[in-house]
Amino acid sequence: MGDHDDFEDNQYPDNDEFVPYVTAGNLAQKNGAKVCLWGKVTKVSASEGFYVKTVDEQEILIRLKRPLSEALEGWYEIYGVSQGKSIVCDEYVPFSDDMAKNIDTEGHKSLAKLLLALDEPWNLGEHLSNMNGVTPME
Amino acid sequence: MWNDQSVVGGGFFNSTNQFGAANTPNQAQKTGRRTSRTAPIVIRQALHSGDGDVTIWGTEIMIVCIVARVRNIRMQSTKITYTIQDITGRMRAVFWLDQEAMEEDDKSTPKVQVNDYVQIYGNVKTNKGKKVLMAFKIMPVTDVNAITFHYLQCINNKLKMEANSKKEKVEVNPTSAMLPANSMVGMNDNSSVNGLNPRQMMVFNLIRASTLEQGISKQDMFVTLKDRMSQMEFENILEWMCGEGHIYSTIDEEHFRATDAF
């Protein structure tokens, strides 16, 4: 049909990389791996980055590659690489106060635990193991 | 007769009314191997699906729901292409624009910005070998718990469907391994020649024993069976036997006769 201009996102290409949610408790297990963490900013350090309190009530340092250029407050979703007791942050995304006002920390903790415990939480079944949708970009 | 189980409590039309809620309507799922109308999935599942619809352990899903973050938005005259990302991967979602609605106001354009979390309902399609989500409804996520909930639901679904598909396999196997169901060999009560397990035989024998032309009613059967099995198991057995051809309904959906009856 008409539109041949399929938008191939070169900046953000398709991928099926699994970056699990973690809590402070299982951060150490994921040392060296890409992780995603929810935390509420407690304090900011000009030299290192900022500290957040996680859903399991522990404080974790988020190391930044570039100095902060804005004030940080509230809950954030932080993507980065685990270093055991801290995270080297690739990016962070704020959750608005409205979104996070009734945040279920227990629920999120359980999700993180589950994700760690399950081998293949997303597999589609035995007949479909081919990766039809994911082809290398030209 | 075969109640349309795929529409129980949910299905596409019902879910349209629930678009106001942040939670996903997944009541449409029943036993596996039925076409499930809507289900929450993660991006990885969409990317790994074969041609056609997403299938999780045998259950085809026509309409999917994905909760993800918007990384990139590209507006064109006929469509908006979003790059969405969740913890399992990244893909594109296309939202076609309705020309008429656009002229009135851009109410049809979702109020979505980069780095917002959104909930998208749509179909997974393959375009030039790449998977794309054809979206027909995009809503901003208003509560972070919806994100946690979505992943938990996806995990739950996958486990449920996996269990269902394995359970069905176990039930169906005896039939294929044994003699054909219509075989007249040894129609004794305890034989499994017909491929029926003892529970199913219980129900089947009741039906077979009826001498009435319209057969025996569900009610009458259940009076005898209710101490030994649940209503749900009873209904499931009846449905399965109808599907296999062991019994058939007569004057209405409540009365059954056995195909082997003399």
From TrEMBL, chain A:
Signal peptide: none
Keywords assigned: Nucleus
InterPro entries xrefs: NA-bd_OB-fold, Rfa2
Localization of this protein: Nucleus
Origin superkingdom: Eukaryota
Pfam families xref list: Rep_fac-A_3
Keyword Translocase in annotation: no
Family note: Belongs to the replication factor A protein 3 family.
The protein's name: Replication protein A3
Automatic annotation (TrEMBL), chain B:
Coiled coil: none
UniProt cross-references to InterPro entries, sorted A to Z: NA-bd_OB-fold (IPR012340), NA-bd_OB_tRNA (IPR004365), RFA2-like (IPR040260), Rfa2/RPA32 (IPR014646), RPA_C (IPR014892), WH-like_DNA-bd_sf (IPR036388), WH_DNA-bd_sf (IPR036390)
Gene3D superfamilies (alphabetical): Nucleic acid-binding proteins, Winged helix-like DNA-binding domain superfamily/Winged helix DNA-binding domain
SUPFAM superfamilies: Nucleic acid-binding proteins, Winged helix' DNA-binding domain
Domain OB: 64-140
Occurrences of domain Replication protein A C-terminal (ranges): 169-254
Keywords: DNA replication, DNA-binding, Nucleus
Source domain of life: Eukaryota
Compartments it resides in: Nucleus
Protein family membership: Belongs to the replication factor A protein 2 family.
Protein name per its UniProtKB record: Replication protein A 32 kDa subunit
Native source organism of the sequence: Iphiclides podalirius
